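re the bet — no i am not wrong, look at it urself. input seq straight from the record:
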Amino acid sequence: MKNHIPYLAAAAAVMIAAPAGRAQDRPGVVYVMRPVPFYVSGQIGGELMEDLTFKNFGGAKNAVDPGFRASVSIGADLSDYVAAEFETGFLVNQLDNSSTQPISAIADRAFLYQVPLLANLIFKAPLRNGFTPYIGGGAGGIASSLYLERGDDWSSDTDVTFAYQAMCGLKCALNRNMEIGVGYKFLATPDHTWFPNDSRFVRSGQMFTHSILATFTWNF
């Protein structure tokens, strides 16, 4: 037994020295799992829709009055430079119904309501002064409802299609949790069909909407 004691002592010394040597390579390092930072953002502002093409009226274009857009986004910062989010909200426009517009043939007044459901990817460039410029894009679906009024009669139909958008903007940090900013969004959809097999049938071309929005973000 005495013959084995020196060997046991040497083995114990090696086991103790090995962790100590590794600790000296990275002194003071503590590995901690960092939770993904989440945020909620609200956006509100005005929007302009480009003239709407009515394909079943010989390609005539109908002017669209300036409208309103409100959105809410729930997202996560994947890094200091990339974020992913889900966005929904609504857009409201009234179509110009003067006698020269094609919509006047089927309605006295017409309103367009849109509800987008989009997944966005955003690229950020945080600056030391608290400002963060960003660009991004997204895709998903959109429910577009056309409301028509003729006399005292109201009717509506909803068409669901693909949608995509591009965005850019600038945010300013008020503190570690709150940011305010201004942003631009371009929203696009393919053709729409409302009231099929009906005298009020409408087949539109692509819809393009430009929005300028004030933003508020709360970071958790």
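see?? The chain has one helix and twelve strands. told u. also The longest strand covers residues 153-173. so pay up
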